[in-house]
Predict the structure.
Amino acid sequence: MTTTGYDPAPAAGYPDAPPRMGFFTDTSVCIGCKACEVACKEWNAVPDDGFDLLGMSYDNTGGLSANTWRHVAFVEQAAPSAASLDVLREAAEGATQFLGMPSSTLPGETGREDRDLRWLMMSDVCKHCTHAGCLDVCPTGALFRTEFGTVVVQEDICNGCGYCIPACPYGVIDQRRDDGRAWKCTLCYDRIGDGLTPACAQACPTESIQYGELDELRARAASRLATLHERGVTEARLYGHDQNDGVGGDGAFFLLLDEPEVYGLPPDPVVPTRELPSMWKHAGVAAVTMAAAAVAAFLGWRR
Amino acid sequence: MTREQSVVPRAEFRSYYGRPVVKPPVWRHDIAAYLFTGGLAAGSALVAAGADLTGRPALRTTGRVTALAATLASTYFLVNDLGRPARSHHMLRVAKPTSPMSVGTWILATFGPAAGVAAVAEAAPWLPPRGMLGFATRALPPAGRAAGLTAAAVAPALATYTAVLLADTSTPSWHAARRRLPFVFAGSALASGGAAGLIGADPVQAAPARAMAVAGAALEIAAAHGVETRMGLLSEPYRQGRAGRLLRAARLLTVTGAVAAIAARRSRAASALAGLALLGGSLATRFGVFEAGKQSAEDPKYTVVPQRERLSRS
């Protein structure tokens, strides 16, 4: 097993870091059951986020937040190609019976099938970025890089300054209002250290959420993508796998069936701190300008 | 649609039910207020140091007292905005160059005590020349000068790091303004510091403060104009809604204040009014910039469209 590219755990000072661990979420087999959301809440004792009906789809959670560390997005849209539906019919090729897409006919009924729309379901999670904005800007050291290359908040250190929240290019980490601190997915740091699988991946009934060594997951994702393309699902694409993207690649990456923004993901995320040296330079020039203006004001009016 | 809005073409984009992609900052108005008080503290410290070195005692006193008061207000705002105010000292656990907030913590930790000593030194004339406090009476003026110069040396960093604090986020209209915001904030700090001098000192002693205020106002207006017009789609939030109203008010107050400061240079009362207008302009600028960032994060358009454009260019 070779680790390619920049490895965040050794770079953070772990001399004998174990392999980088992560998630590969294959949305082409997600059935939107939300077992991941529930398992995450159960294991991590995450409070409920209100029982709101958002009135937009079967998704009544809305997005990731301090109290939602796995979020199942639910998109209903016109199907772009017949092949995309065959992806979802894969189950029918096995022993299980395909119960059908939303249509005006009964499940299992043959003949006229209204299959002009499709459902996209995607379990979103913290990306555990290679270059993590939240971690970079945290002024207390509450956010830290684990030996597994993941990013975790220490709840006994966080003082709720809130800087990590606008820093995240994905809008993942959030402040828990009644508690004041910032919270997000830990990639089940308390489980993976004991060799257990994170709660969401453990609960996923279709292996849409796969947990493992990141290098292995990347290879698995590449082969799954090739299979889908072979079957004519041209809209399948990987998201967050590229180590040359604006965050140095994600520890939790995805296979999507449409553009990222359709799922509420940024199409080209960049860690804000990438521009930090240039920002300090501009601030430095402004600071010198300010000092010069003050000096000139007093020299100009010297008595 | 107003004339200035129609400059930006209508952006087509896809999103998840129109929900935001990035999280808007959870900071309350304490932080916008701190942007102002931090700038005021920095500007006043420069006024105080200049007045000290050029023999303008009334202007020096004004600058030092304002700098301390603004620093105390800043500390209150910063602690009050924390989700866990009792843990504010956790900021002192680390010094992290990748975190502008950590850098700012240490800038303020240097500036605050220096500004405090400088302001306390103003009490020297009221202390008895002999006896128990006699030593303090003699030691305070030189200590005040050293502390005041230290505060002034740190002041430009205090005034401009807050621009990096905002820009080093994924909040679209803050990040896009990263090259311009430091100049907006530097100008705003100069204008407010000079304005404090106009209010607190007689017009003769306040002459350099007047020059500082006018130069700062010009820099603030020019840099803010760039932020409002030169960043394409990401300038839009600076012109719309509450942010737009605040920034228009800021421009009006700042221009009025600067013109009045020049015109009324013989009248104490008119100078003070000009100073008040400049302070109001600086305050409105900070709140306007703060609101514009929030507005840009709340609409997925400002995250998705510029990123799509970047992808299609590469």
About this structure: Chain B has a mean pLDDT of 95. The radius of gyration of chain B is 21 Å. Chain B touches chain A through 83 residues (CB under 8 Å).
